[in-house]
Write a structure and sequence with these properties.
- The structure holds two protein chains of two kinds.
- Helices cover about 80% and strands about 0% of the residues of chain A.
- By secondary structure, chain A is an all-alpha fold.
- Chain A has one domain: MetI-like fold (Orthogonal Bundle).
- The N and C termini of chain A lie far apart (about 55 Å).
- The mean pLDDT of chain A is about 90.
- The termini of chain B are far apart.
- Chain B has one domain: MetI-like fold, CATH 1.10.3720.10.
- The model of chain B has no long low-confidence stretch (mean pLDDT about 90).
- By secondary structure, chain B is mostly helical.
- Helices cover about 85% and strands about 0% of the residues of chain B.
- The chains are: A mainly alpha, B mainly alpha.
- Chains A and B meet through helix 3, helix 4 and helix 9 of A and helix 2, helix 3, helix 6, helix 7 and helix 8 of B.
- Chain B: It is found in: Cell inner membrane; Cell membrane.
- Chain B: Keywords: Amino-acid transport, Cell membrane, Membrane, Transmembrane, Transmembrane helix, Transport.
- Chain B: One of its GO terms (molecular function) is transmembrane transporter activity.
Chain lengths: ~220, ~220
C-alpha cells in the first residue's frame, strides 16, 4: 500500500467524488420532478398520449442504462442533439430515473384511500386543492421507501457515466490506475467511497421515513 | 437520414451476439441462486458470526456498483495468479453480485412461510437439513418466483456492463458496428430494442409461470 498515492491523486479523487455526488443529486432531483409530471399527466391523459407515455416507460425500464447513454451521446448528434458529456450524462440519468420514479408515484397515488378523496370532494374542495392537500401528501408517505430505494440505485448508475467520459469518480480512478498501475489503492478508494455513500443515503432515507410516518404512530 | 438499411444489415449479427447476453445473465442468475441460498442460510442461522458474514457480503455486493466489481475481479484475478477466461470471470462476478440480491429475496420469502410449517416438520422429526431442503426452500422458491423473474430481467440489463471487459455481447457488438458504420443512432437503438424484446419475453414467460404455480 502506497499512501503517497492518495496525497498525489487526492485533489483529482476529491474532484471525481464531488462530480459523482453532483451528478447523482442532479439526476435524482430532475428525474423525480420529470417522473412526477409524467405520473400526473398519465392520470388524465387522452388515450394516445397515455400509450406514448407507457411506451416511454417500458422502453426505459426494459433497456440497459449504458445503451441509453450511447443512444443519447453518440446517436444524438445525428438528429441534431449535440451535447457535451456532462449534460448528456445528467440528461441520461434524468430520463432513466423519470421512468422508474413515474411508476413509483403512480403506485403511490393508487395507494391513497379513495375515501379520503371522496370526503374531500364532499366537503367541496376543488380538484386542484384535493390533489395538493390530500392526494400528494398521502402519496408521498407511502411512496417514500421506494423513492429512497431507487435513489440508492441511481448512485450506482452514476459510475456508468464514466463510459461517456464524464469525469466522475470512476473516471478519476481509471486515470490513476492507468498512470500508476496501483490496482489495490484505486479499487479501495472506489469500493470504500460507494460503500460509505450508499450507507449514508440509506440512513438518511430511514430517518426521512421515520419523520414522515411519525404521525401514524400511536401516542 | 435515418437508415433502416443499416439496421437490417446488422440485425442478424447483433441478435447472434445476444446469445452471450443471455448466457451471462442466465448462468449468472443460476450461480446467484446457489450462492444466494447459502448466504440466506447464513443470514437466518442462529450463529452471530454467520449473520455478520452474510450482512457484510450483502452490504458490500449491493453497495458497490457492478461496474466497479467487474473491474476489480478483472484486475485482481491475474494479480493473484489466476488466469481464467474472461467469460467465466464475468459470469462469476455477475453471479456474486446477484447472490446478494437473491439472498435478500429468499429471506423475504422464508419469512412469508407460515411458522406452523417449520413447527410441524420439527414435530414429525425431520432433520434440520431436511427441513431446509424439503420444506422451507421449495416453498420459498415458489413465493420468490416473481421477484426472481424481476432479478433475471435486471441481470439482462446489467450484462451490458460486461462489454467493458471485452466480452462481445449485444452492447460490445453494437459498439464495434457503430464504429465501423458511423451509424451510432441506428445501431444503439437496435441494440436497445433487442434488450427490450428479451426483457418483454422474460416478463411474459414469468407471468405465465406464476399463473401455473399459483395453485
Amino acid at each position: 500500500m502506497d499512501w503517497g498515492l492518495f496525497v498525489r491523486f487526492g485533489p483529482a479523487l476529491a474532484q471525481g467524488i464531488a462530480m459523482t455526488i453532483a451528478c447523482w443529486i442532479a439526476g435524482t432531483v430532475l428525474g423525480m420532478a420529470l417522473g412526477f409530471v409524467i405520473a400526473l399527466v398519465r392520470r388524465r391523459a387522452p388515450r394516445a398520449l397515455g400509450w406514448v407515455l407507457t411506451a416511454y416507460i417500458e422502453f426505459i425500464r426494459g433497456t440497459p442504462f449504458l445503451v441509453q447513454l450511447f443512444v443519447l451521446y453518440y446517436g444524438g448528434p445525428m438528429v441534431g442533439l449535440r451535447l457535451d458529456a456532462l449534460p448528456a450524462g445528467i440528461l441520461g440519468l434524468t430520463l432513466y430515473g423519470s421512468a422508474y420514479f413515474a411508476e413509483i408515484f403512480r403506485a403511490g397515488f393508487q395507494a391513497v384511500p379513495s375515501g379520503q378523496i371522496e370526503a374531500a370532494r364532499a366537503m367541496g374542495f376543488a380538484p386542484g386543492v384535493i390533489l395538493r392537500r390530500v392526494e400528494v401528501p398521502a402519496m408521498l408517505v407511502s411512496a417514500l421507501p421506494a423513492l429512497v430505494n431507487f435513489s440508492i440505485i441511481l448512485t450506482k448508475e452514476t459510475v456508468i457515466l464514466s463510459m461517456i467520459t464524464v469525469p466522475e469518480i470512476m473516471f478519476a480512478t481509471g486515470k490513476m490506475m492507468a498512470e500508476t498501475f496501483a490496482f489495490v489503492e484505486t479499487t479501495l478508494v472506489l469500493a470504500l467511497f460507494f460503500w460509505v455513500f450508499v450507507e449514508v443515503i440509506s440512513r438518511l432515507g430511514r430517518w426521512l421515513e421515520r419523520r414522515a410516518t411519525h404521525y401514524l404512530l400511536e401516542r | 437520414m435515418f437508415s433502416f438499411k443499416t439496421i437490417l444489415d446488422n440485425l442478424p449479427t447483433l441478435a447472434w451476439a445476444g446469445r452471450f447476453t443471455l448466457l451471462i445473465s442466465v448462468l449468472g442468475c443460476a450461480l446467484g441462486l446457489v450462492i444466494g441460498a447459502v448466504i440466506c442460510a447464513l443470514a437466518v442461522s442462529r450463529s452471530r458470526v454467520a449473520q455478520t458474514v452474510a450482512a457484510i457480503y450483502v452490504s458490500f455486493f449491493r453497495g458497490v456498483p457492478l461496474l466497479v466489481q467487474l473491474l476489480l475481479f478483472f484486475y485482481m484475478l491475474p494479480l493473484i495468479g489466476l488466469n481464467i477466461p474472461a467469460t467465466v470471470a464475468a459470469v462469476v462476478t455477475v453471479g456474486l453480485c446477484a447472490a446478494a440480491y437473491i439472498s435478500e429475496i429468499l429471506r423475504g420469502a422464508l419469512n412469508a412461510i407460515p411458522r406452523g410449517q417449520r413447527e410441524a416438520a420439527i414435530a414429525i422429526g425431520l432433520s434440520p437439513r431436511d427441513i431446509w431442503a424439503r420444506i422451507l426452500m421449495p416453498q420459498a422458491l415458489k413465493i420468490a418466483m416473481p421477484a426472481m423473474v424481476n432479478e433475471l430481467i435486471l441481470l439482462v440489463k446489467a450484462s451490458s456492463l460486461v462489454s467493458v471487459v471485452g466480452i462481445v455481447e449485444i452492447t460490445r457488438m453494437s459498439q464495434s458496428i457503430a464504429a465501423a458504420t458511423y451509424r451510432p443512432l441506428e445501431i444503439y437503438l437496435t441494440a436497445a430494442f433487442l434488450y427490450l424484446i428479451i426483457n418483454l419475453a422474460l416478463a411474459f414467460g414469468g407471468r405465465r409461470l406464476e399463473r401455473r404455480l399459483a395453485y
